[in-house]
Amino acid sequence: MITMLSWILKQVQNDTEKHMTKYTLPELGYAYDALEPFIDARTMEIHHSKHHQTYVDKFNAAIEKYPELSERSPEELLKDLNSVPEDIRIAVRNHGGGTYNHAFFWKILKLNSNPENDAPELIKAINKDFGSLDNFKEQFSQVATNHFGSGWAWLVKNNDKLSIIATPNQDCPLSQGLKPILCIDIWEHAYYLKYQNKRADYVASFWNVINWTELENNFKA
């Protein structure tokens, strides 16, 4: 009887695992050294293959108890954290946020992208809401540099208006009902190997590795 019960429980577990989708680490789409000299290859390798992988693994572990959640993307869960069971809500916020934020970040990085040519509609909106591209860069850099502790700085869209915000830890603008357009990772692991404690230097270099075409797509989507 006990053997039969154990077999049934094992079959239920196997069936659940078969129907549970595991989130996987996304490919960068470019080599680890593609952003040299502004972001070094070793930082990119560790950041992607170690830090991001850890968030993905812990996110998967968090939702194992609720296999039905695997049918929803991290983006969907972050947009509606109140729908996530309370006992794993913080883990989804932290590790789901880390999974989504990093995937978003990799896509907006590229050398030799020109804002005026590659993001004309976004630049029009930036000029309207910030006065000029230079004004926007200065304000964004200040927010990123002066944010206390670990986190992210973002350009977000709220209805038809652009604004700059910072989020702590792995919090995501999606959870605030905002649409992300641009972000910079300001956790020390994103820059410490090359820039040590000089976050301002890292932020200044960041403007050389923005994929403005991707930002235009984010803005229009």
Level-1 CATH class name of the domain at 115-220: Alpha Beta
The overall pLDDT average reads 92
- SSE run: HHHHHHHEEEHHH
* Order of adjacent strands in the largest pleated sheet: 2-1-3
Based on the coordinates given, report the CATH architecture of the domain at 115-220: 3-Layer(bab) Sandwich
- Structure annotation, total helices: 10
Structural class: mainly alpha
What radius of gyration results from the CA coordinates?
20 Å
Oligomer: single chain
What's the count of strands? Answer: 3
> Helicity, in percent?
40-55%
Strand composition percent? 5-15%
Query: What is the CATH topology assignment of the domain at 115-220?
Result: minor pseudopilin epsh fold
Shape annotation: globular
What key phrases describe this protein's structure?
221 residues, minor pseudopilin epsh fold, three-stranded antiparallel sheet, 10 helices
Summarize the structure.
53% of the residues lie in helices and 10% in strands. The chain is built from ten helices and three strands.
Secondary-structure blueprint of this entry?
Elements: H1 2-18, H2 41-63, H3 74-79, H4 86-107, H5 115-118, H6 120-130, H7 133-146, E1 151-158, E2 161-168, E3 179-185, H8 192-195, H9 199-206, H10 212-220
Antiparallel strand pairs: 1-2, 1-3
